Amino acid sequence: MSIVVNLIEDTCPVLVDDRTAKMGGSFYYTPLRPYSPAPLKWCYEQLLRYEQATLIDVGAHTGCYTLLAKHHPDLRVHAFEPVPNTYEVLKANVQLNELEDRVTVRRRGVTDYTGLGMLYAVKTPAGSGISMIDGTPAHHKDVTAEKVSVTSLDDYCELHNLKPTFIKIDTEGGEKMVLQGAKRTLKKYHPFLIIEYSSENTGQYGYHPIDIVKLIESLGYVFTSPEGTDLFCVHLEWNKIGKQSIEGEG
């Protein structure tokens, strides 16, 4: 059974598998709607600037970003989701929208190396969106642990000859490692970025979220954080966006 949901306000309808409503992460449950509409809308607006674009969706979950391909005529998406049951729903959502020719779904984690990592998957379906690769899960997380294939974005992009237009990163604190594994790609192609930004999550990896800011600035990016939970990042070679200080992170 499928459900119609609008990705952006009252526009961009897509079909989703009815299991999507029970899994959290990408979508709220009642009413079914994208979990973070502002960054999703900003991502789509940047992608529309290009007739052809490539989105890398790191931590795709059930696919609200991935499904933007339904409404961009030539958007290619590479979506990474390592949690088994979430990965299956993501694949189903891609198939329901007939996007298999433009969307590649990988059951793989993304970090700063290529090989095998440890997936800590939250046991309840509704909590699948706070699963993580490596790190030390917070005490409130009841998880199972299993080895899973992981890749760095530098290795993946070189292997598949990708020139990303936009990279979205939501990895429950693993964002710093994802960025470290994408340095060559970021320096070469300067894609737009949306990066989850949370001290609660970065604590699971033993670093402070200001480290993410220092890293992206060292790579020539400026940012804004209109909701305080995500960084919207643009390279200095494009039109600059207003850079806001994040209180308490100095």
Q: Please tally the helical runs, counting DSSP H or I stretches of 4 or more residues.
A: 7
**End-to-end gap:** 49 Å
Might you state the CATH topology name? Rossmann fold
Overall helicity: 10-25%
Chain oligomer state: single chain
For the secondary structure, the number of strands is: 15
Order of the strands making up the biggest sheet: 7-6-5-12-13-15-14
For the record, the CATH architecture stands as: 3-Layer(aba) Sandwich
Report on the architecture of this protein.
By secondary structure, the chain is α/β, with parallel strands linked by helices. It has one domain: Vaccinia Virus protein VP39 (Rossmann fold). Helices cover 23% and strands 30% of the residues. It is built from 7 helices and 15 strands. A 7-stranded mixed sheet has the order 7-6-5-12-13-15-14, with helices on both faces. A 4-stranded mixed sheet has the order 8-11-9-10. Strands 1-2 form a two-stranded antiparallel sheet. It is globular.
Topology diagram in text:
Elements: E1 2-8, E2 11-17, E3 27-28, E4 33-34, H1 37-47, E5 53-58, E6 75-80, H2 84-96, E7 103-106, E8 109-110, E9 115-122, E10 132-133, E11 143-151, H3 153-160, E12 166-169, H4 175-180, H5 183-189, E13 192-196, H6 199-202, H7 210-218, E14 221-224, E15 230-235
Parallel strand pairs: 5-6, 5-12, 6-7, 8-11, 12-13
Antiparallel strand pairs: 1-2, 3-4, 9-10, 9-11, 13-15, 14-15
